[in-house]
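Study both lines:
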Amino acid sequence: MARRAELIAIGRKLFADTSYDALSMDDIARQAHVAKGLIYYYFQSKRGYYLAIIQDSVADLVTYAASGLELEPVGRVHRTIDSYLRYAEHNQAAYRTIVSGGVGFDAEVHAIRDGVREAIVATIAEGAYGRSDIAQVPRMGLLAWVCSVEGAALDWIDRPRLSRETMRELLVKTLGGSMRAIEEMDPAYPAPAPARRDDG
């Protein structure tokens, strides 16, 4: 499995600089300094290789975003947003692929992206409400916020005119607005009171 992980790490670098269509299996094998058959052995096809790279990137993104379990709820929400932005900033090609759905309309990549959204919603819900199993109004409110974050983060990494700290504060405040709207519609989900946060 160490060889497979090594090939994924190489692939993440290759696809960070070059589009999916521009890289042939011969190019990948040459740049990875391996026989093409080895890539087929582990991944069956170029598409299988690409999906494995995306899934690996997604695992990193969710791990980053879910860090800070030891913090108070408000600090945890700040940490989640900061970790998400750090990931987008330092893994731009992978982030673009995850949130934009990959090559054309790709149902498998879309499913991976939807899984990321649900994981982020669950992480925010756990931090804000103390549980991830929430009703439909708060779930949809948080999902709408996550989708807006994706669009904002894509624009931010393309045109980084704001610092990550400013971007984080803006997203935290818009999340607060979303959570106040959720509370108005479903009082069983009160918005957390502002508190001193840990920047981590």
